[in-house]
Amino acid sequence: MAALAAAPAPKFKDQMPPMTNPLRPLALITPLALLAPLALALICIDPAGVATAGEGDEVTIVLVGDVGLNRNSQRVEPRGVRKFGFQTWANTTELIAKDINGDLNFLNVETVITDRNDLRRDTKGQRGPFNFRTHPAGLRHLVASGFNLLSLANNHSMDYGVAGLKETLKHVGALENENLAVATGIGMNRDEAGRPQRVNVKNSDIAFAAIGIVTNNLERHRAGAAKPGQIAYRFDDDFAEIRKRLSATPADYRILSIHYGIEGQVRTDTRQFSDWRRKAAQRDGIDLIVGHHAHVVRGVELAGNSLIFYGLGNFLHHGTANMTRKGICRDYGLMARVHLRKASDGRLVLRAVEAIPVTDTHYRPRRLTGRKGTARIHVLNYLAGTLDSAKDGTQGVRFTPQGDGSGLYCLPGAKKEGGRIGALCQSYAPAPPVPSSLRGAIAASCRR
Question: Does 30 or 154 have the greater pLDDT score?
C-alpha cells in the first residue's frame, strides 16, 4: 500500500516515542512519515516489560480468520453495529479480547472500510451479491484491541468498486500513518497491491504478503500496472508473483495470507495441496501460510519447516451465517497462537502452536471451553489424518486437548526451553487418538 512505502528503516529503539495500547502497555513503532517512498516499510513492535529468561527471543503470532462488522448492504454507523439489537464496538469483542495477546495479531478484513452510505455497490455479476462495508471506527476498535497485521485481499475488497477500494486505502492508511497496524493485499496499482510488508518484532524482521480470490475472476477487480484492485489468487501469474516477491524480501520469517477455499468444505482441496503445500511451502520455503474464506475450519499441516493453516473459518463477521447449527465439523472458528524462537542463525523457528476453538462468530465470538472445545480439537486431529502424506513428506498437526478446551502442539525439545514456550510445553504429551465415542459423529460431519 502506498502509505507503507519506505526506504530502509533507521534504528528504532533510540528514536521512537511510546504509544499506548489497551492490551500491550507499550509498543514502539517506526514513524512512517520519516521514511522515504517506494520501498518496503519496516515497523518495529516491542512489547513493554522486562522479559523473563528465554522470553526476549520469543515471538508469538495470533491468527484469526474472516472479519466484517456489518451485514449485507447494511448502513454503517459510527458507534457500532446492529445485529440482534445494537452492539457497541466494545460489545463485539468483549468475550474474546483477552485472547488477542500476541506480539503480532492477524485478521482478514473481509469488507470495505468506509463511513459513507452513498457508495454504489458492485453486484459482481451475481443475482444475489453480498456487499459488505464496515465503519472505520469498527476497524479502529479491532486495532485498539490488538490486531496489527491486516490482510485486505479477498472477494469483498471491491464490493463498492474502485470508490470503495479508495475508501479502504484511506482509512487503513490512517491507521498505518499512526503506526498502529500494517496491511497489504490491495492498492492503486499492481505494485502496491502485491507489495510485501516487513515488521520488526523484538529485533526480528517478519515479512508479510496477502493474496485472495476475486469474485468470478473479474478482471476489473484485478490490479494492473495502472489499475486499482488486488492481486488475484486464481490467476497463476499473480500467485507466482506474490510468492516471488515475498521470498525475495529480507526477513527472519515470512507469512503468506491466502483467501481461498471451497465454501463449506472442511476437506483440503487439490489446489491447496498443489499451490500451498508444494509451491509456497516446499518450493519457496514460506514459513507460515494462513488460509481463510471457506467459513469452516480445515486441518493444520507441517510441510518441512512450514506451518499451513488450510482454513481458519470465521472469527467475527456479522454478515455470515450462524455456524453453530452446522454440525461438529463446521460449527466453530479457529484462533491460533504460533510460538516462535530466534535460532542461532537469527531466523525465527516454530516451537509450539495453540488451537483455540471459537463460537458465535456471526455475532460476538467467545471461546469454546470444556468438553465442547475438546471435541473440536478432536475434529482438527481427525482432519490431520487426511493431510499425512509420505509422498510429499508432510504430516497433519495433532493437538493435545488441554483442560480449558484448547489444543496444544509442541515440537521436540520445546519443553526443555526456558521462557513462555518452555512453561507452556512443560507437561506436553503427544495427542491421544480421537475417542471412539466421537469418531462416528466426526467422520459423518467431516465427510466433505
Answer: 154
